[in-house]
Amino acid sequence: MQLFQDLRFALRQLRKSPIFTLVAVVTLALGIGANTAIFTLLDQALLRSLPVSHPEQLVRLEFTGSIRGHFNSFGGDDHDYFSYPMYRDLRDQNSVFESLIASDLQNVSVQWNNKPDLVGCELASGNYFQALGLQPAMGRLFLPADDVPNSSPVVVLSFNYWKRQFGSDPGVINQTLLINAHPFTIVGVAPPGFHSLFPGSTPETFVPLTTKHIITPRWPDLEDFESHWMMVVGRLTWSEPRTSGSQSATAVARAARRRVGQDPQRLRTAAPHLSR
Questions:
Q1: pLDDT tens-digit profile of 228-257?
Q2: Separation of alpha carbons 136 and 148, rounded Å
Q3: Domains of the chain: which residue ranges?
């Protein structure tokens, strides 16, 4: 009741001072617009400032056209996300990029020494660390061979999480960490300074994409072509990536059209393009 009274009083005051009201509204609008623009520029700047090998060669893929199915809701636009079969087709048919990386962010429950916790988890393609040119701080980072269905689940810890939760103990390598009550083998620790392919995110754990049925058991949609949930990033093969973006987009579009020609019922979207 008090809230409604306060609102009515505020409205009466604004009506009494129309010039002040106009200034306040314009200021708020400009502030929102500026913050949106800053966020967009900052997102691009953070991608370029990732502590990885040649970050200037990284581009984020988007696609245009009709959209069906459902989507990841982690920021961005619907066109920022791909399904796993779409990613796999582009990866396997690709002659444009040195590598294509896919990832997604989730929250998971973990248990270590009978102590439960809720942490961030990045599902990542098996080539994730290799393609980014990263070396482990301890143990090893997962490989494409770890990212196949029915393989033994493995997990890589973030450097900060390893320090905070495990006391920087090298003995955790090859130990078992329960993730969503499922055993994962700790194979390594990510390098210090690297947090995620998603700018501004700091997941504590990294697991292969093909463990999605464990990470999101309510959505066992790994093979659903119309379930869009992964961000896809490519590393350009050209030495001058800024001048080759249009060439890359054209080549990726051709690869997508070949897939449409082979299986038109399966792919109902237009060709991907690059976002930089």
A1: 888 898 888 765 444 445 555 555 555 555
A2: 21
A3: 2-48, 55-215
